[in-house]
Fold:
Amino acid sequence: MTTEIAVAKGDGIGPEIMEAVLRIFESAGVPCTYHFVEMSRSVFDQGFSTGMTPEAKATIEDLGILFKGPMETPKGKGVKSINVTARKVWNTYANVRRFRSIKGVDTVFSRAGININMTILRENIEDTYGGIEYMHNQDVAVCYRLITRPGSEQFVRFCFDYAVRQGHTQITCGHKSNIMKQTDGLFMNVFYEVAKEYPQLQANDVIVDDLAMKLVRMPDKFQLVILPNLQGDIISDLCAGLVGGLGFAPSANIGDSISIFEAVHGTAPDIAGKKLANPTSLLLSGIMMLRHLGKISYADTIENALLKTLEDGIHTGDFGAAGSTPVNTDQFADALIKNLGNKPHQDAVNTNTADFEFKRPEKRTFNRVFPESSNDNEVIDGVDMFVTSDLQAAGVAALIEPKLSDKFMLRMISNRGTQVYPQGSVYTDCVPHYRVRLEKKSEITRADIFNQMAVLTETVQIEDAEILKSWGDVRGYALAQGQ
Ligand code: NAD
Structure:
């Protein structure tokens, strides 16, 4: 049964590599129908700020699958990346990137006989990618890094299910919760909560800097690593480097309703239109898409033909043995098409699953809103105010303390996260931006906080504030370094 999918060729080398991949699909008899949609740099120029036409959006939302080439984000026009927008508006919350050693792709590991076969799963919506950023004053920029329980749980559950489906025995959570105790702490807690439901998997965690070192020293020791968005972005490119570069690293962005399959490299403007581009990354992403659509046998046939072609030493100009002549994009696709039905001598693929029919998810008619966790035992402890001042911290305290009502006390002042008042070190350099922590002396409400701040605006310049809360033993805010 044929499956309809939306296809956006993209910019730069996008159309060349997409045409090569679709030609390979056609030669392999892949039962798919393609709906080409307008989504590219030129669409921004037509005045659509998301980089896609309304018709493209409707088609993608109807079909639920988008296969896309790389796309350019116009610089200096204040528009957001079309790639990031697509992932976020359609809530493709899990980014799946598989990295494996491929015969014919020379790397330091292939030369050392170390076989890499691992998957990085990156949370795709939250973290710094919300782009929620402000200048508190002309000297200080801040970014809200949102990590949420529902978002983490949705992603982590997908990861554990994926691990089971792929027959893994181990799953590793990468994080930086030793420093970001609230945000990465929440992500890791959710990981271990969900892990209890999957006793068949060995779940462990590793701090992301240690993970980076271990991945470079012993990449064959990892099966599946899951990470928050930004760390996942960096680590997955590191892993691409381990197996030969971005050209060999497919990517899938999976959501409950819409999924996007794309090459991870960019539009390569330096070689666009010259037919020099390597279509492998897009092809591998297409192979992931075919498996997602249940077209397992077609995916295996095409992947084996690709592996055989690479094993035969056929390559585009961006890789391959020194001295051997590269082929162009079309010649690479021709060689692969000739190999359809052939298998590589080493590491032939045989997914032990029968083809199945893809079930298109129900179309959405309203936003899903996750329920709030119980807040019954919430207690308000105080407030952190961010204040612009180029006084010494004691000078800031002298402006604040006389203005405090009998409900509040000044607990501490920190600068860039390090306490500088009442105790601190004279060696801590201060920028004109203090965090002033007021704690309650008796029970307080949100209204008490806002009333107190209104009084303080008479003497200090408050830029922003965070209410300090706790739930039983759980404190919902970090202590300052040195507090
Ligand atoms: P790039 O990946 O386009 O290019 C980096 C280098 O890798 C270049 O030398 C290029 O020639 C080479 N290269 C990339 N893909 C190749 C391929 N398939 N075959 C052979 N060589 C290849 O990165 P960039 O130059 O930083 O970005 C160019 C544009 O792409 C920017 O507008 C950026 O926003 C966009 N971009 C899009 C995506 C996406 O659509 N997912 C991802 C990254 C960058």
